[in-house]
Specification:
single chain; 295 residues; alpha/beta; Arc Repressor Mutant, subunit A; D-Maltodextrin-Binding Protein, domain 2; 3 domains; 7-stranded mixed β-sheet; two-stranded antiparallel ribbon; 11 strands; 23% strand; globular; disordered C terminus
Length: 295
């Protein structure tokens, strides 16, 4: 048994799908299946019942789910505490993308500070370009930002990915739909997120397809955008997040718009505090699988 097998098991248990779990873990589905099979063989029990339509935990699997999570948590805590004892530099300067969920970042930072209470965190916010400049100047130790397809001079690590969806009020006529065609945005009251990373791309799509949403509000504040959506003021295109009170998320049926979010670090950054935060954040998103961590 190894730690990766425990992570594989928890991912499948949380998502109820080998396909979704492999995507969250950024590994191939065959590798995931082999890891689960070896774990079941070593434990001598079946952890999952598999049917054509679904996968669900056996009674043994439900019992082992809590144990596996406890083992991983204890290992991470012990490893971090040991490394932290030798850490002298206690200031961590991070840059966060403007459009990251405040609730998600609050839980992440709060969890880290509870363990490493004498680390002082200094945070700056910005868009993708601004954060890269802050890194280049040495104003921040690492950035949590969007990772593109290009090659970065800085070190990078993917944390999670999100689909862009249409956010509508729960009482909106479209809220009962399972998905939405891009053309259905035509003439709808629309809240434009001015810091949206794909804002220019969306405008190009609107123009190319002759779709003209009726812009009723423009804002640089995503939290205000969510609040306005919940009141029925308009709809908005934003990254899929966990439950937002009064808001439903509709995936596009004819578009595949996603963003990958991760760390961007200065090359050869050997700060132990930076390494501790990276490992803590990676574990945080792995355990949450980003299904419920970005409210």
């Amino acid at each position: 048994m190894n730690l990766n097998q425990l992570k594989y098991f928890l991912a499948v248990a949380e998502t109820g799908s080998f396909t979704k779990a492999s995507a969250c873990l950024f590994i191939s589905q065959p590798s995931l299946s082999v890891g689960i099979q070896k774990l079941e063989e070593e434990l001598g029990v079946r952890l999952f019942e598999r049917t054509k339509k679904q996968i669900y935990l056996t009674s043994a699997g439900k019992y082992f789910q809590n144990k596996a999570r406890e083992i991983l948590n204890n290992f991470e805590a012990a490893k971090n505490e040991l490394r932290y004892k030798n850490c002298n530099h206690k200031i961590l300067k991070i840059g966060c993308l403007h459009t990251l969920s405040i609730a998600s970042m609050t839980r992440l930072i709060s969890g880290f500070v509870k363990i490493y209470s004498d680390v002082v965190i200094e945070q700056l916010s910005g868009n993708v370009v601004e954060l890269e400049k802050l890194l280049d100047r040495g104003d921040i130790d690492l950035a949590i930002t969007i990772l593109g397809d290009g090659t970065y001079l800085n070190d990078s690590q993917i944390l999670f990915q999100q689909d862009y969806v249409v956010a509508v009020a729960n009482n909106h006529p479209l809220a009962e739909k399972k998905s939405l065609c891009f053309s259905e945005l035509d003439e709808l009251p629309y809240i434009e997120r001015m810091r949206c990373e794909i804002r220019d791309h969306l405008q190009e799509l609107f123009t190319a397809r002759g779709i003209y949403p009726r812009i009723c509000y423009r804002t640089t504040h995503d939290e205000l955008c969510k609040a306005l959506v919940s009141t029925g003021t308009g709809v908005a295109v934003m990254p899929a997040q966990s439950t937002i009170p009064g808001v439903a998320h509709l995936p596009f049926s004819d578009l595949n718009l996603i963003r990958q979010v991760g760390f961007l670090c200065r090359p050869k950054n050997n700060s132990k505090v930076v390494s501790l935060f990276q490992e803590f954040a990676s574990s945080y998103f792995e355990q949450g699988l980003f299904l419920g961590v970005a409210a």
